[in-house]
Amino acid sequence: MLHALVTYTAALALLIQITASPTPKPAEKVPPPCTVSGRVVTAAEGTPLKSSRVVLIAEHRQRESQVYAATSHSDGRFTIKDVPAGLYRFLATRTGYVDQHYQANGDDTGAVLALQAGQEVKDILFRMNLAAVFTGRVNDEDGEPMALIQVVALRKPTDEEMEDRKDSPSRGLELVPLGWTEVHMQTTICFQNSSRQNC
Q: Which burial class, exposed, middle or buried, applies to 60 when counting CB atoms under 10 A from its CB (0-12, 13-18, 19+)?
């Protein structure tokens, strides 16, 4: 009798344990990754640019967000694989050239690239403009070199831009924006320190 009672109690405890254990969840389907490919060329001649860095950065970047990138080959072509679906800032960089954002127009930061699960985006074209460099020396009125002088490159707006800015007369000169290839043609150099400014 005692043996039957022990066996019954053990069976009951086993049954309770089996029914209480959670049922395994079906494995969540991971959405297929995306692929982005294209070319990087010079803006002036359309020559392929080797060793350009092409980068996708999540629009709402979190601390653990990964950056997806590739380097262009000798024919200017690049491919970025295994990119999760989402919204991305997209740009190409290369030493000696101005950074080029995806579908940038003038001095804006470009469009956001929206990737759907499994999407393949092809034939992206980045046209890179050569960067300009200003060098020189700042002397005072006695011809002595001056230290700790801030040198700023300013671009004089075109007549058309001035018409658009009649409501803002204080914006006569502005800092040179990235992406302007004619900056060397329309630049005023200002040498300024805390006491004076000479243009």
A: exposed
Instruction: Provide DSSP, 60-103.
Output: T--TTPPPEEEE--TTSEEEEEEEPSEEEEEEEE-TTB--EETT
| pLDDT range class, residue 184, cuts 50, 70, 90 | very low
The domain spans of the chain are: 34-128, 150-198
For residues 153 and 186, give the distance between their C-alpha atoms in angstroms, rounded to a whole number.
10
d(CA 101, CA 89): 8
Helices (H), 102-167: 159-164
Residue 80 and residue 70 in contact, taking contact as beta carbons nearer than 8 Å: yes
Q: What class is the 34-128 domain?
A: mainly beta
In the chain, % of residues over pLDDT 70: 64
CB 71 within 8 A of CB 78: yes
CB atoms within 10 A of CB 34: 23
